[in-house]
């Protein structure tokens, strides 16, 4: 049985037994928060438990490295939708120690893409239209600096109201310990 068949078989049983009922909520976050976190598998259940959030509490945006790297990219658009259309009143950027994005070697990554069948011509075409794939796939060397960079991008975005706290944190992927990198409440209160 392939993965899709396994998922669909489980889903049929899940729906038939009404196992969805404990998860019923609406689209508005109860805790009025949006959280941007890394897509790391260790954080799927650990991050919500460490932050005391449950289904329906927050909008969660997952991205490699918890990086917001473009002011008008899809991550930032999601933050804006959460704030302006869904009632989020604060933003948290949560990176983590031992993040795979801290070890990304753009040249090796591109080489892997080529090994996986992406033709060399594709990279040339992208370069010709001004997309520098090496820069685009680059990670970071310091998670605190990366989180703070994403916090600054969001906080200083022209479409984010100045009263919205944007907090940056780093979570330990084994213990769940949270460390504050940028206190969004201090920035809003002017401390």
From TrEMBL:
Zn(2+) binds at residues 38, 40, 96, 99. Keywords: Metal-binding, Zinc. Its cofactor is Zn(2+). It comes from the Bacteria. Gene3D superfamilies: Carbonic anhydrase (3.40.1050.10). GO terms for molecular function: carbonate dehydratase activity; zinc ion binding. Belongs to the beta-class carbonic anhydrase family. PANTHER family: CARBON DISULFIDE HYDROLASE, CARBONIC ANHYDRASE. This is carbonic anhydrase.
């Amino acid at each position: 049985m392939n993965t899709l068949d396994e998922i669909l078989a489980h889903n049929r049983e899940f729906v038939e037994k009404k196992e969805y009922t404990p998860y019923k909520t609406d689209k508005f976050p109860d805790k009025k928060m949006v959280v941007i976190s890394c897509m790391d598998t260790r954080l799927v259940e650990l991050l919500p438990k460490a932050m005391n959030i449950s289904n329906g509490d927050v909008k969660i945006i997952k991205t490699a490295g918890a990086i917001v790297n473009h002011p008008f990219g899809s991550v930032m658009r999601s933050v804006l939708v959460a704030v302006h259309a869904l009632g989020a009143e604060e933003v948290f950027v949560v990176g983590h120690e031992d993040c795979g994005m801290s070890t990304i070697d753009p040249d090796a990554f591109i080489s892997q893409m080529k090994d996986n069948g992406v033709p060399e011509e594709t990279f040339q075409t992208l370069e010709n239209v001004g997309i520098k794939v090496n820069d685009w796939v680059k990670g970071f060397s310091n998670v605190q600096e990366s989180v703070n960079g994403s916090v600054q991008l969001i906080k200083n975005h022209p479409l984010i109201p100045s009263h919205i706290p944007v907090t940056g944190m780093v979570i330990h992927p084994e213990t769940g310990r949270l460390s504050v990198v940028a206190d969004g409440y201090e920035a809003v209160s002017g401390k």
